[in-house]
Amino acid sequence: MTLSSPVSRVVYNGKRNSSPRSPSSSEIFTPAHEENVRFIYEAWQGVERDLRSQMSGSERGLVEEYVEKVPNPSLKTFKPIDLSDLKRRNTQDAKKS
């Protein structure tokens, strides 16, 4: 049996690691994965471009913030997470260990 593209697999080496696995330079991404990432990236760039245009006053109504009319009570204590800060802290913690 031959495969058209390499497939990665998880192999247990006997060691337990509590931190999440970080992507390595040898990690292989399929063409479908790369296409999905490119699609999402380009779509988000379009949203940001429209938002900048709207904020500069050159165009109106391109991007609209969704706000629920009746807030969900279970989200009352929700606090947004700064993903960039979280990633930076995790990277620093990994370097210390």
Describe this structure in words.
- Belongs to the MCRIP family.
- It is found in: Cytoplasm, Stress granule; Nucleus.
- Keywords: Cytoplasm, Nucleus.
- The structure is a single chain.
- With about 100 residues, this protein is mainly α.
- It has a domain at about 30-65.
- Helices cover about 40% and strands about 0% of the residues.
- The protein contains two helices and no strands.
- The longest helix is centred in the middle third of the chain and has 25 residues, at about 30-55.
- The model is unreliable at about 1-15 (pLDDT under 50).
Shape: extended
Proportion in β-strands: under 5%
What is the number of E strands?
0
Radius of gyration: 21 Å
Q: State the separation between the terminal residues, measured CA to CA.
A: 41 Å
Number of helices: 2
The percentage helix is 40-55%
Order of helices and strands: HH
Overall pLDDT metric = 75
How is the biggest beta sheet arranged?
none
**Category by helix and strand content:** mainly alpha
Q: Stretches where pLDDT falls below 50 for ≥5 residues?
A: 1-17
Family: Belongs to the MCRIP family.
Region (Disordered): 1-29
Subcellular location: Cytoplasm, Stress granule; Nucleus
Protein name: MAPK regulated corepressor interacting protein 1
